[in-house]
Amino acid sequence: MVHQLKAALRKKILAKRDALSPEEVQSMSDSIMERLFSRPRFAEAKTVAFYIRKGNEVDTERMIGYAIKAGKQVVVPVTDHKITFVRFRSFTELVKGKFGIMEPSVRENDPKTPAPEPEVVVIPGVSFGLCMHRLGYGKGYYDSYLSSCGAYRIGICFDFQVVEKLPRHEKDERMDEIITEKRVISLI
Length: 188
Hints:
Blueprint: H1 2-18, H2 22-38, H3 40-44, E1 47-49, H4 61-69, E2 73-79, E3 83-87, E4 94-96, E5 102-104, E6 120-123, E7 127-129, E8 134-135, H5 141-146, E9 152-156, E10 162-163, E11 177-179, E12 184-186
Parallel strand pairs: 1-2, 1-6, 6-9, 7-10, 9-11
Antiparallel strand pairs: 2-3, 4-5, 7-8, 11-12
């Protein structure tokens, strides 16, 4: 039953998100970036994890650039059978990975020098609930990573992606904050 509820919500939210214009995505993404960069935990972090957006997700490209200019070490995910974060070097070095998502070539990252553990993880989602849980794409990669990660978790999305009650599974991980273009939802 939970899987059916999640699938229906996922379909509804993705249809609305996919209908956004590039200008709407960029404008709302810029507002989210302003809120993100003003959050104390993010501002204090030396190493932050971002995702590389796919489609009409919140655009993280400017966020990554500004974080690097601010002196932060940026790591991004590479997905195989699990998520592994590697150092971000350049958008020109990205290759299409699993699920068609752009990611750094693992060959570009020296396996003898592992990426530092992020202090803050910026997380995408199809939807987030006021209960602080997220609805992803249904594969469980982020939940699996977060289950053994001590980093501060910030979910970012457009405000219409936040719902009051989210169907969830016992393995779904909670966020510490959710940031939209209109508000910050926090446990603290």
